[in-house]
Amino acid sequence: MTATAIPAALLLEATDVSKAYGVVVALKSASLAVKPGEVHALMGANGAGKSTLVKILSGAVRPDTGRILVRGREAAARSPGEARRNGIVSVYQEPALIPDLDLRSNLRLTGTPVGAFLHWANELGLSNVDLSDVALTLPLATQRVIDLARALAIEPDVLMLDEMTAALPANLTERVLEVVARLRGGERSVIFISHRMIEIAAVCDRATVLREGETVGVVDVTPGSEERIVQLMLGEIAGQAPATTSADVYAATKRQRDLVPRLQVKGLAAGTHLNDVDFELYPGEVLGVVALEGQGQDELFDVLCGATRASAGEVIVEGSPVNFRHPADAIRAGVVYVAADRAEALLMQRNVRENITLPSSALPRHWGPIDLGKERRRVNAAVETLQIDARAGAEVRRLSGGNQQKVTIARWIAGGVKTMLCFDPTRGIDIRTKNQIYNLLRDLVAAGAAVLLYTSELKEIQLACDRVIVIFGGRVVAELPAADADEAALLRAAYNLKQEETLPEDVAAEVVAAEERAE
Amino acid sequence: MTTISPPTEVRPTFAAVARASFGRDAWVLGLAGLVILLLFFTRIINPNYGAGGLQSLSVNVLPLAFAAIAQTIVVISGGIDLSIASMMALTNMVAATLMLGRSDEIGIGVFVGVLVLGVLLGAVNGMLIVWTRVADIIVTLAMSFVWAGFALWIAQAPVRSPHDWLSGLVNGSVLVDFLPKAFIVLLVSVSVVWIPLRRSRHGLALYAVGSNALAAFRSGVSVGRTKVLAYALAGLFAGMGGLALSAITGQGNPLPGGFTLASVAAVVLGGVSLAGGRGGVVGPILAVAVLSLIQTDMTFLGLNSNLATVTQGVILIAVVVLGSLTLRRRARA
Amino acid sequence: MTGVQVERRQPAIASIARMFRDQPLIPLLMLLLALVAAFAIVRPGADFPGFIAAQIRTAIPLAILAGCQTLVMLTGGIDLSVAATGSMAGFVAASLYTGPDSLFVAIGVAFLFAALIGAINGLGVGVFRVHPLIMTLGMGLVILGAANAYQLQVVRTRSGVPPELRWLGSATEGTFFPDSLLVFVPLTIVIIFMLRRTGFGRLLYALGDNPIAARLSGVKSWQVLLALYVISALLAAVAGFLVSGLTNVASVTLVNPRLLPSVAAAVIGGTSIFGGRGGFAGTIVGALILTVADSLLSTLGFPEAARQVLFGSIIVVVAAFYSRLTTES
Fold first, then answer.
1. pLDDT band at A242 (very low <50, low <70, confident <90, very high)
2. Are B138 and C319 an interchain contact pair (Cβ–Cβ within 8 Å)?
3. Chains that touch A (3 or more CB pairs under 8 A)
4. Taking the mean position of all CA atoms in its chain, how far away is CA A143?
5. What CA–CA distance (Å, rounded) separates C111 from C94?
6. CA atoms lying within 13 Å on the CB side of residue B12
7. What is the DSSP letter of A4?
8. At what angle do helices B201-211 and B223-249 cross, to 10 degrees?
C-alpha cells in the first residue's frame, strides 16, 4: 500500500527458475522479485508450483535452471544452511525446531543470538519463554511462534513464511501479522505465503501469482485486489460443460424418496484441523469436498476410513452408528478408501496383481493357498474395467501415475463397492486418465454406490460430482449443487469469501474483515 | 488491533514442564540409586565386599563402559554400530603388538596412535554409510567382519604384551581406597571428549540429526558430516575400549568379545531412545554397572550365574515394552 | 500438479541394472558357478563330488537360518534370536534323548520351546511395537541364560546328539547326496510356496513394502507378525538340529557363529533389510556363495583373517550395489 516508500533496487530476484521431478515438471518458469522493505505474497492454487519454488529458495531443493540473486549477489543454495548464510531464512508450518533439544540448544544450533530471540518472542506475545524447555513439550502453536522468533532474531535479508499462520490460533496469528506488518518499510523483506486472503490484504504490499509452474502476474495488494488475484490463479476459465443435469435430477429424486444416507457425519472433530463437520452422503451420488490445504479434510478422510479415531462427533453408516478402530472395520462396513498419496496406498516394489488382491488376503482365514486361476480372472476383470496399462506391472512404481491410481481403485472395484472415499484421486495424473476416473465414479454411483470425492482441482467438481461441500477451518462453510459450482464460486467459497460481488469492493473487503474478526 | 496478553494455553503448566524435565533425568537418577542399592546389597550378602570390590567392579566394567559410550553416541545420532566389538579387538591387537617389547615412551606414542586409529575406523564406517546409502545396521555388520578379520590377520592367537605403566592406569585407586583408578579413567575420558563436545554445535548436531533429520537439515546442519562424526567418535571410544582391554588383560586378543550386543543392551537400559536424539552417556555407564553388579551378587548368592543373563534379557525387553506403553499412552492423551 | 511427460533416455547400463534387479538370481548363480569353477581349477585332482556334497551339507543349516532372516526381513525386521533358539533346540533334543523311542518326544519338546520363543518375539514386535532388533536381542539373552541354567541341571545325565540327527546332519547317500537334503528340499518347497502362493506370504511382502498400505487394506499387522516369528523360531530349531547333527555337538552356543552370516546370506541373496523385496531362492544361493567362497579361500591358503575381511567387503559391496539399483531418485 505504501508503494512510494519502496526503493527501486531489488532485494531478492529469482528469474526463470524451473524444476522437474523425473517426468513431472513441478516448476516451468517462475520468477519472483522482492523489493527491500516489502511484504510480498506468493500465491497459487494447489499444485501451481508454489511449494517447489519455496523449497528452491530455501535451499532444500536445487533448481534445474534459473538464477537467484540476493542484493545482486548469486545466492543459489545447495542446502538450507547455505541459504541461511545467503540471507534467506524460512519458517514452515511444520516447525524446524529439534524436538528433543531444549530451546537454548536449538538457538545455539542455528547460531541465533539469545537476546534478540527473547526480544522477538516477546514481540510475538510469548513474554515468559523458558529457554530450558524441551521443544517437543511445548504446544505446536508455541513452537511455530518460537521458530518465527528465532528466524527474526538472525535478521535475515529475506524472511520466508510458508503457511506459517495456517495452524495458529487467532490471537497468535494476529500477533504474527502485526510483527510482519511492522517489518514493512525497513531494510529487509518478507515473502508471505498463506491461503487466507484476509491476511494477504492485511500485511502484503504486492503479490506474485503462480499458475501451472509459471509466474502469471504481480499484483499491488490494494482493497479489492483479491478478485484480481483469484482471476490470475484461475487463468482462462474455459467454459466447462456442467455436469449432466440428469445426474442432479437422479440424486435429487433419490433424496426426495427419503433414502437412508449411506454415510452420515455429525459434528465430527479430530486432530487440530477438523472441528465440526456435518454432511450426508446418499447412495447414487458423488459428493464433492473442496477445501484449501490443511482445512481438516485429511483428518476427515482418515477418520472415515478407520485410520485414526475421532475426538468428537458421530459417523453413521446406513443408519447404524459406527466406531472404526482399524481400517479393517471400515472395510467390513463397506467403506473403502482411495488415497491421493499413492506412496501411501501402493506396494511400490510389488506387481499389479499383488497390489489389487492385497485386501483379499488381509484376514487370517484368507492366509492360505491362493487360487491363482480365480485370482487372475478377478484381476483381469478389474484391469479391463479400469483400462490399466500393466505392461510395466512387475513393479508398480514403474507405472505412470495414472495407472498407479487406477490400481489403487481396482483394489476395491475387484471386491464390489458400496461406499468409496476418494481423496484427491486425480492428483498429478494426465487428463485422459482423469476422465476415465470420472467416468468410473459415475458408473459406480449409477450402480448404486456412494462416492465421497475430495479434489484439489476445482474444475473436477462439475465433471464428476452431483453436489459439493466446502470446508474451511474444519467446518462445512458452503454446500452447492454441482451446476452452480464453477471454479470461481468454489474458490471464493474455499477462501471463505462471500458471493455478493455487487457490493462496492472496499465495502466487501470491510465486511469480510469484520467477519474474520468476529470469528 | 487489540493487544493480547500471553494466553495461558500457549505455555504448558509448570507441572508439565517439571514432569518432562524430571522425567528425562529420573531414569538416570533411578539407575544411580539402583547402583548404590546394589552396592549395599552386595556388602550385606558379602561383608568382605569393600574397596577391593569397588576396584574390581570398575576395572571389569571399563571395556564395556567404553563400548556403551561408543554405542550411545551413534544411537543418539539415529544409527547403530554393530562393529564396536570388532573395532575394540583390532585396536587391542594393534596396541598389544606395537607395544610388545618397546620402551614406555614408544608405548605412549602407540597409545595415542591407537586412539587415532579408532577414529579412522569409525570414520570409515560412517563414510561408507553416507556414501553407499546402505542401512547402518548392514554396513556396520559387514564392517564387523572386516575389522575382526584385520585383528585376526595380525595374529591368530592372543599376544602377551603386559606393560606396567598401562595396567597401572586402571588398577588400584587414587588418593583414597574408594576411588578406583579405572573409574577416574572413565570420568576423565568422558569429560575430555564428550562433555565439551556435547555443549558445542557439533554435539548439538548429533542430537539434531537423530531427533529429526529434516528439521536438522532445515536448521542448517550437514546430515552426512554429522553421521561421520558420530561414527568416528564411536571409533574413538572403541579404541579406548581396546586399550582398556590391553591394560586389564595384558594381552591382545584377536577375537571380539560380546561387547556389541551388550552395548546395545546397555544403551537401552541406560534410557537412551533407539529412535535417536535423546539421552546421554551417564545412563548407559550406570546400566553397565548395574548389569555387572547383578552378576556379582548372583555369584555371591550361589545362584546360577546364567540367571544373570536371563535377567539382563528380561530387563532389556521389559524396559522397551514399558517405554513403548508409556509412549502410546502419551500419544493417546 | 502439472504433469508433463518427458522422454528419458535409457542408457545400456540401466537395462543391465534392471535385469539384475528383476532377476537377481541369474548373476548370483553365475557368481556361484564361477566360485565352484575356481575351486575346480585350483584343485584339479580333488574329490569334486565330495567337495560339492560337503559344501551343500555345510550350507544347508546356514540357508535355513538365513531363511528365518529372509522371512523376517521381508517385513522390515530382523531376528537375532535364531542362533540362541537353534542352539537351545539342538541342546534340548540331545538332553532329552534316551533312545530311538524318545526321538519324537525330544524333538517335539524342542519345537514347543521354539514356538513359545517365537510367540513371545511376535507379541513383543507386533503388539508392543518393540523394535525387532531389541526384542530378538533380548530374547536371545533370555534363551542363552535359561539354556545355560538348564545345561547345569542336565550336565550329570549323559547327553549326546541323537544318532538320527547325526545321520541327518552329516551323512551322505552315494557320493554326493547329503541326507540333510531330505529335510531341506521339502522345507524349501514349503517356504517358496508360502511366499509366492499364499495370502500369508503376500502379507509379509506387503508389510515390509508399505505398512500403511497394508493397514489401509485391512491387514492387522500383529497377527501376521505373531505367526511370522513363530515360523522363524521353528525354522531356527530345524537349523539347530542339523548343526548339532553336522558337528556332533550339543551346546547352548553352537549356532552363534552362524548368526551374522545368516543375515549376510539373506542380504547377498537380494533380500532388503528395509523389507518388501527378496525371496528364499536368492537366500539359498547367498548361503551357498558364502560357504563356497569360504572353502575356496581356505583352499587357496588365505588365512581365516583374510576371509573375514573379504567376507565383510563383499557384503558392503553387494548391499551398496542393491541400494543403488533399487533407489530410483
1. very low
2. yes
3. B, C
4. 21
5. 13
6. 21
7. G
8. 110
Rounded to a whole number of angstroms, the CA Rg of chain B reads 21
Q: Residues 6 or more apart from B307 whose CB is under 8 A from it?
A: B298, C145, C149
Angular region, C254: left φ>0, alpha ψ -120 to 50, beta rest: alpha
Residue A101 touches chain B, beta carbons under 8 Å: yes
Q: Rounded to an integer, what distance in angstroms lies between the CA atom of residue A214 and that of residue B47?
A: 83
Which of A109, A134, A139 has its CB closest to that of B208? A109
Closest CA to C162 of C86, C81, C93: C93
pLDDT in tens, A140-173: 888 888 999 999 998 889 999 988 877 677 778 8
Please give the angle made by the CA atoms of C219, C220 and C224, to the nearest 5 degrees. 95
Query: Which of A309, A331, A335, A350 best probes binding to C when mutated, by most C CB atoms within 10 angstroms?
Result: A350
What interface predicted TM-score (ipTM) does this complex get?
Answer: 0.83
Report the distance separating Cα A263 and Cα A318, nearest Å: 6
Q: Please check whether residue A161 touches B, CB under 8 A.
A: no
Give Cβ neighbours of residue C193 (< 8 Å, ≥ 6 apart): A369
Number of residues that make up chain B: 333
Give me the count of residues in chain C: 329
Contact status, residue C236 vs residue C262, Cβ threshold 8 Å: no
**Predicted model pTM:** 0.80
Residue in chain A lying closest to C329 (CA): A22
Task: Report the distance separating Cα B169 and Cα C215, nearest Å.
Answer: 57
Sign, CA dihedral A388-A391-A395-A397, equals negative
Which residues are CB-contacts of C244 (< 8 A; sequence separation ≥ 6)?
C90, C91, C93, C94, C161, C165, C169, C250, C254
Mapping DSSP to helix (H, G, I), strand (E, B) and coil, where does residue A435 land?
A: helix
pLDDT in tens, C14-25: 666 666 666 778
Residue to mutate among B74, B291, B306, B315, with most C CBs inside 10 A, is B306
C257 touches chain B (CB under 8 A): no
Nearest CA in chain B to C134: B317
Tell me the backbone φ, ψ of residue A218, rounded to 5 degrees: -125, 125
Query: What sign for the dihedral angle of Cα C179, C182, C184, C185?
Result: positive
CA distance A394 to C322: 17
